[in-house]
Amino acid sequence: MQLIGITGLPMVKAGDDVAALIADALQANNLRLQAGDILVVAQKIISKSENRFRVLDDVVISDAARTLAEEVGKDPRLIQLILDESVRVVRKRKGVVIVEHTLGFVQANAGIDQSNVETVNGKAQALLLPENPDASAAQLRSALRERCGVAPGVIINDSTGRPWRNGITSFAIGVSGFKPVQDCIGRKDLFGRALEVTQVAVADELACAASTVMGQANESIPVVLVRGVSLPVDEQASGRELVRPAHEDLFR
Amino acid sequence: MQLIGITGLPMVKAGDDVAALIADALQANNLRLQAGDILVVAQKIISKSENRFRVLDDVVISDAARTLAEEVGKDPRLIQLILDESVRVVRKRKGVVIVEHTLGFVQANAGIDQSNVETVNGKAQALLLPENPDASAAQLRSALRERCGVAPGVIINDSTGRPWRNGITSFAIGVSGFKPVQDCIGRKDLFGRALEVTQVAVADELACAASTVMGQANESIPVVLVRGVSLPVDEQASGRELVRPAHEDLFR
Prior knowledge:
The first copy, chain A, is α+β, with helices and mostly antiparallel strands. Chain A folds into 2 domains: 167 residues, CATH 3.30.1330.100; 75 residues, CofE-like fold (Alpha-Beta Complex), CATH 3.90.1660.10. In chain A, 26% of the residues lie in helices and 24% in strands. The radius of gyration of chain A is 19 Å and the shape is globular. The model of chain A has no long low-confidence stretch (mean pLDDT 92). The interface between A and B is large, with 68 and 68 residues.
């Protein structure tokens, strides 16, 4: 398996055609998409292209947001955006708000980021997750099929903290072209016994793999090409398959 | 970044010299270790070489294990092994026991596995995690330095379920030769703002990357060579750095 960081993408702005930018960057890197390739794309450039910026000073703060902001010691404008993007607060503590995003992800701050986000006329902005990351991934896959003649699998990834473990890791917020959870049912171990553990979150594992190539401190490598993983094509696949339903979850 | 599955390792047995087996397999694959290489090694072959097998019929079952076994509907011999290996039960439900391992990992069944484990004279066995995975990783690193002239970073990986997300992913249970949590403090984002998120669990991300090459259903590829990640050497590093202390954990 090879992971190739795609360099040379310009800074993405609202309205940019990410598929066109990626197609150009692939060409500039002398790379041609091959069947089975998977592109891992940083959430930030998708969110930016979809203009998911919010100017903090424009946020109207509710009483609930003001109360929570005082409780955890955070900017009430940011807390309002977090509440707008989520269905419930899962845990809170000084400096920490972990919520269930409307998209199903349990994440600190609803995945809202202020790093690598430009100010507008000196005004601070925050960047929300894409409105529908699966649709964004499918759209990118389809646009790249048209431009390059080959439809890559697409993962839109973001990073998050975790229970029990130090350090953030990456995960897939949107997926297109292959099943993000691969089923091992029916496969046998080396001694012919059926495997107890049957489902592997391969899209999250590939998101993590790509993350080590992307780095964290800047977005000069927001796209990573993964080559040499053989996963069957599935046009109906969705990143939602990675979200464990609340009633099956012992930690929500 | 390249991930190369090391094929041709024999089935590992208790007492085997894993470093020797890996060195031979590298040679058979025409691979020479290079400075900066990281080897990801499946927990199972380390546990087997360290004879961490337990014959289920030899387990003496306590009252506590019998009660818990009835409650969750599992084999009381397995439950006894799980309790022996752990410091507390974090969650339980029919069919599920999630514990805090004596090593600090929060994992279903204390990481005890019955797949890919041979029976002995027809008797079922379970395989415990290595007693000290960091020491196992350090020993492997040192033995490979002697055999190959180059000391690779070493990750011993295992897979686990997670809160909130479907499917298992891999994580690092033992690390040697580099810091498993890389610190981004002091680095700036593209706009010169200090990054809010400062620590990346790079060893877990590399464990996941290797897992996609290892596959799950058999252990024909229990070792993956990761090449092209540049991480500073740290001889004191330990996989324990990945374990979030209980008092900082909102989910234990």
